């Protein structure tokens, strides 16, 4: 497996920030009441992750080791400020819903961790790829968890799509069943904890089956030799 391919697979699956490293769980559990909320926060986080990874990689040889973490935080904060201003200008209602969790991206351990563990030790291209696919992997978990909670809690998918995509997206909402009262357990944080646990368990089962299948395929070859 080439280095770039490994970086991609790690970001999407093998070392997924949410399912394996269990980082960034505060926003993951707090805002994923709907798929669109998760997608909005995921895009914002990916933007910051890519920008900070690339910048840290470019200037890595000019950063004194003693103050590298404060410098990383300042760089991350500058990208978070940019995404705040963009969301405030173009997706204001979604910005209000996500609230404090947009500025809290600064403290997201996923972003700081990738800057320290990967971007500061690699060239810009691998750092850029790592940022993109770590962000996509994190966003995918946000979207899946948001879709699961939205479906169980209120019987819809893509509710509030217009908050992110514009007025034309109001008709994208899919209604699976009608209810007079939302299932609050799914929408509130307890539902998020259970949903995340199910996603982690599902990943572990898939990985275990893949490992067992690989072992079965290798064993006949060892017996023949």
UniProtKB/TrEMBL annotation:
Gene Ontology CC entries for this record: endomembrane system; plasma membrane
Keyword terms of this UniProt record: Cell inner membrane, Cell membrane, Electron transport, Membrane, Translocase, Transmembrane, Transmembrane helix, Transport
Pfam families: Rnf-Nqr
Localization (cell): Cell inner membrane; Endomembrane system
A single BP term in Gene Ontology: electron transport chain
E.C. no: 7.-.-.-
Membrane topology, record value: Multi-pass membrane protein
Keyword Translocase among UniProt keywords: yes
Spans traversing the lipid bilayer: 20-50, 71-90, 96-115, 127-148, 183-201
Subunit record text: The complex is composed of six subunits: RnfA, RnfB, RnfC, RnfD, RnfE and RnfG.
HAMAP family for the chain: RsxE_RnfE
Family classification: Belongs to the NqrDE/RnfAE family.
Function recorded in the entry: Part of a membrane-bound complex that couples electron transfer with translocation of ions across the membrane.
UniProt name for this protein: Ion-translocating oxidoreductase complex subunit E
High-level lineage: Bacteria, Pseudomonadati, Pseudomonadota, Gammaproteobacteria, Oceanospirillales
